[in-house]
Amino acid sequence: MTTPRPIDEQRARLRSTLTAASRLLLCLDFDGTLAPIVDDPDEAAPTPENEAALATLASEPTVSTAIVSGRALADVRSRIEGPKTYAGNHGLELARRGSVAVHPIARKRVSRLETVYETLETVLAPVPNCRLENKRLTGTVHVRAVPSSARPVVRRHTQAIVDRLGGGALEVSTGKRIFEIGPSIPWGKGNAVALIAADMPPETVPIYIGDDVTDESAFRTVEHDGIGIRVGGDEPSAASCRIDSPTEVAAVLDWLGSVGVDLLERDVTRSNAVDGSSLDGGRL
Ligand SMILES: O=P(O)(O)OC[C@H]1O[C@H](O[C@H]2O[C@H](CO)[C@@H](O)[C@H](O)[C@H]2O)[C@H](O)[C@@H](O)[C@@H]1O
Questions:
Q1: Which domains does the chain have, with CATH numbers?
Q2: How far is 120 from 103, CA to CA, in rounded Å?
Q3: A Pfam family in this protein (predicted)?
């Protein structure tokens, strides 16, 4: 983990990475990246700018796009259109090449998770504004609108119930004002991104943009050959670049759709002769 650098400081590397490739795989997180964070998870929606810029990129022949979300697959698919590939439930379900794959161990643990979920519904019912999101393969306890004094209680109850009923097969992790309950298996967004990248032709550069802790494994996956872009502050991250907000995501997508796709078309042998100053074509 290092301190991600503002993307404007990394533009020469971004340009040379794209120039050395012939295709781009662009993977995007949803909440906090394409969609600003809001109190009610049902109300989350991509900004119109992000939606339009993603649609443009998704229509580019040299670009493959994918959404990689903690939401259930069907849910995130209903919120943003364009990409051919979607991963839901932090990579436990993956829609690509016309079919949907579900992690087999996660599938086996659905009934145990359902028991935990039903118990939590009862136990947490008295907590003001606490809400549960049933994503079948995982579940989310939302505490964003819960009074801050009550959040530790929610956390304790959640952990205790998962310990008691999960039988070691389930675990609790944290996200932005949420507690996530899922199967205790070493699988996450990074594994899903690796599978998606394996479908790509040679000379494809991966870029991943995300904002939360579960995006870190995806940053680790892409940073081998490509670039991770974290949406947020300068906290340590496996991503090498950062931008401040979903508003800036649109600027990155616009740049990739204009300057970026042109760079992909440059002959690799010319890339060594290219310097950043001769490639200005927009902010970044
Ligand atoms: O991987 P993501 O696509 O970023 O999904 C992560 C979680 O996002 C959602 O929760 C977050 O966004 C909500 C709406 O802005 C916000 O109210 C909540 O506090 C955030 O944690 C989603 O509801 C979860 O299921 C996802 O796991």
A1: 5-102+187-266 (3.40.50.1000), 106-183 (3.30.70.1020)
A2: 24
A3: Trehalose_PPase
Contact status, residue 106 vs residue 170, Cβ threshold 8 Å: no
The CB of 41 under 6 Å from ligand 1? The reply is: yes
Ligand 1: which residue has its CA nearest to atom 23?
41
> Which ipTM value was assigned to this complex?
0.99
What's the 70 CA to ligand 1 centre distance in angstroms? 7
Residue 144 CB less than 6 A away from ligand 1: yes
- Ligand 1 neighbourhood includes 44 CB (under 6 angstroms): yes
The residues annotated with a catalytic role in the active site are 29
Please, are residues 104 and 110 in contact by the beta-carbon 8 Å criterion?
no
How many angstroms is it from 131 CA to the middle of ligand 1?
12
Q: Which residue's CA is minimally distant from atom 24 of ligand 1?
A: 71
> 4 CB under 6 A from ligand 1?
no
